[in-house]
Amino acid sequence: GKKLGYTFNHRNLHNVSLGQGQEVVAEQALDLAAKEGHWVILQNIHLVAKWLSCLEKQLEQHSEGSHQDFRVFLSAEPAPCPESHLIPQGILENSIKVTSEAPTGMHANLHKALDNFSQDTLEMCSQEKEFRSILFALCYFHAVVAERRKFGPQGWNRSYPFSTGDLTISVSVLYNYLQASSKVPYDDLRYLVGEIMYGGHITDDWDRRLCKTYLEEFIKPEMLEGELCLAPGFLLPGNMDYNGYHQYIDDALPPESPYLYGLHPNAEIGFLTQRSERLLRTVLELQPRDSSAGQGAVGTREETVQALLEEMLEKLTDEFNMAELMAKVEERTPFAVVALQECERMNVLTAEIRRSLTELELGLK
Fold first, then answer.
1. How far is CA 335 from CA 290, 328, 347, in A?
2. What is the pLDDT of residues 211-240, one digit of tens each?
3. Which partner from 141, 153, 259, 358 sits 20 to 30 angstroms from 270, CA to CA?
4. Positive or negative CA dihedral for 6, 8, 14, 17?
C-alpha cells in the first residue's frame, strides 16, 4: 500500500480519494485489486472529469478475466443541473446506483437529526436529564430550520446551507458547557447556537431574529418540567433511551402540517401549488406531442393509430373454412396438400392480427 501511495485501510480494501494527480494511483489500485480479488473505493470521481473516460475503459477491460471477488465502489457529489452530469453512460449502466436523498417532512427530518447520535451520546454527560432534553430540542430545532426552506420566502428570506455539522457541533458545545457547570447556561447556549453555529450562515436580519425566537421557545428552563410543547400536541419527551426517542417520534408527532413549524396553514398553499405544477408539467412532458392545429392537421398520435387500425380491420379477410375446402378437394395431390396447409397457417396469422388489433383498440379507448 505504501509503495503505490494509496490508503490501505484493510487487507482487501483500497481507498483512493481522487484529485491532485491521484488518477495513476487509482489505476494501479484497480489493476492490483482485479488480479487479487480486492475491493476498491474511488471517492469524489466528480473531481476528475477528464479521467472518467479512461476509468470507463479500464473497468470494461477488468469486466472479463478478473478475480470473482473484485469490486469497485465509486462516490460522487450530485450534479447541480443535468448539463453538469459528467459520469459516462457506460459506467452508469453497469453500476448499481445508491443515492442519499434529503429527507422531506418533519417526521423524516427529526429521525434523520436524531440518527447523528447514539445511546452512547446520551450517556456521556453527567447531567443526563438536562443533556437529553436539550439534545432532543436541538434535533427538533434543526429539523425545523432545515425543512422551512420548502416554504420559500415564507420560510427563510434567503436559502441557507444548514447541515448536520451545525447540529453535531452544537451538541458538543452543549456537552462541554454542562460538564463545566452545575447550572444550565440557557442564555449562552441560545447565543452560541443561534448567533454562531446556525447564525453564521444567516445574512438577513429578519431571518436571524426568527432563528433566535425559535431557540427562545425551545431552550428555556420550563423544558425540564415536562410541560414544554415543541409544537401543538407534541410535548418535549422526558428522560428516555435512544430507541425510546425514535419510538416517541413515531407515536407522538402530529401529522405533517405548517403548525409543526409555527406557521399558518396558508403558508403551505404556495409550496403545494408549486409542487403540483411541477408534477403536472412532468406528466404533460411524458404525453405524446400534438401536431400543429389547423386545417389539414393530421391529429394526435392516438388518432393516427386509430385510423390505421380501422383501415387494417376493414382490409382483414375472414378465415378460411377448412372443412368446406377439404370437402371440395377430390384428389389430395401434393399441390392440394400444400395449399391446405398454407390456408391453416393463414388462419392462425389472421386470428392473431385480429386479436392484437382488437387489443390495441381497447388500449386506445
1. 52, 14, 18
2. 999 999 999 988 888 788 999 999 999 889
3. 141
4. negative
The number of CA neighbours under 13 Å toward the Cβ of 55 is: 29
71: helix, strand or coil? strand
Nearest to 179 by CA among 221, 219, 130: 130
- CA distances to 52, 84, 88, 139, 241 from 46, in Å: 9, 10, 11, 32, 40
For residues 341 and 321, give the distance between their C-alpha atoms in angstroms, rounded to a whole number.
13
Give the tens place of pLDDT for each residue, 316-339.
888 999 999 888 888 889 999 999
* Model pLDDT for residues 260-299, shown as the tens digit of each residue: 999 998 988 888 998 899 999 989 888 766 555 444 445 5
Handedness of CA 260, 264, 266, 270 (dihedral sign): negative
Q: Can you tell me which residue has the cell 387500425?
A: 309
The answer to whether 149 touches 171, Cβ cutoff 8 Å, is: no
- Say yes or no to pLDDT of 8 above 50: no
C-alpha cell at 148: 422551512
The candidate with the shortest Cα–Cα distance to 199, out of 162, 169, 249, 150, is 162
pLDDT in tens, 114-131: 999 999 999 998 888 899
Q: Is 311 left (phi over 0), alpha (psi -120 to 50) or beta?
A: alpha
> 193 CB contacts (<8 Å, ≥6 apart)?
138, 141, 170, 173, 199, 215, 219
**Axis-axis angle for helices 301-315, 334-364 (nearest 10):** 150
Length of the chain: 365
Closest alpha carbon to 175 in 159, 192, 163: 192
Closest CA to 353 of 317, 303, 305: 317
Task: Report residue 229: phi and psi, to 5°.
Answer: -100, 120
59/175 Cα distance (integer angstroms): 48
pTM over 0.85: no
d(CA 26, CA 5): 10
